[in-house]
Each structure stands twice: as C-alpha cells, then as structure tokens.
Amino acid sequence: MKILFLHGWHSVVGGTKPTFLRQAGHDVANPALDDEDFDAALHAARAELSRQRPDVIVGSSRGGAIAMNLQAATVPLVLLCPAWKRWGSATKVNSQTVVLHSRSDTVIPFQDSVDLTATNGLPAEALIEVGEDHRLADPTSLNTMLQACERFKVSSENETSG
Asked: Is the separation of the CB atoms in 131 and 104 below 8 Å?
C-alpha cells in the first residue's frame, strides 16, 4: 500500500511513525515540509500527492492540517491529533477519514477532533481515542495508526477486484 505521510511542525522526515509504517511493509513517501511557510509545505505535499498517488494520506498534527488542505476528496485520511484550527483554512474532510487523538494531548485540544468529526458528520467510530500525549508514538498508538491505514487497504482492494 502507498502511504503519503505528512509530518508535524518541527518534526523530522523518517521519524517514528513513518518508519513504523515502512517496517510494516508499506511504501511510505515522507516529504520534508517547510516549518515556517504553510503554503510552501502545502505545495510540497501537493507535488508528492501528484507524484505518488497514495492509497491513504496520514497527517500528524500540522501535517493533518496540510492533509485536509490538499482537498484530495477520494483519498482516505488518517489524521493524528490534527492541528486544523491552527493552520490552513480547510474545515472539511472526506467520508473516508479516521482521526486518532489522545485526550491527554496538551498541544492540540482533543475537543478539536471532536468538533472536526461532528461538523463533518463522521460516525462516532471515526474518532479513536488513543495514546498518552500529542506524539502518539507509543506502541498502542502506532498499531492503531497502522490498523486505520490498513482498513483502507481492504476497501481499495475490494473496489479494484469488483
């Protein structure tokens, strides 16, 4: 499965989460995103989206806001503590969106993800409470992220075979 992983603000390319997805056997594109210029980061993400044509986009924190602003209506999203109220202007996500967030997050309020799922009419199970902090780098969070991505792999395989 091809995954476009969009890192958070002041995060590094090749960090824990994209490495975990890669070690699980997925083809992960993880472009460097400008920390200071949101438009430049969005441009880099759009270029990678066009080049990779991923099966799913994973966006972590600011990367979640970038994922939302890509407006890739047909690509499933897995958003990790998305910072959509801080960066960009997008407020909508597609129906194939899963949000992972820790209630203990001290960087992005958990309520932001409650608001995102509610205003987009997503089912209750689209918001998964997981992790002990903003990073979502603990084993349970990493496995939950992997499962969320692989849920869409099953969906895309069913679409191509039938």
From this structure: yes
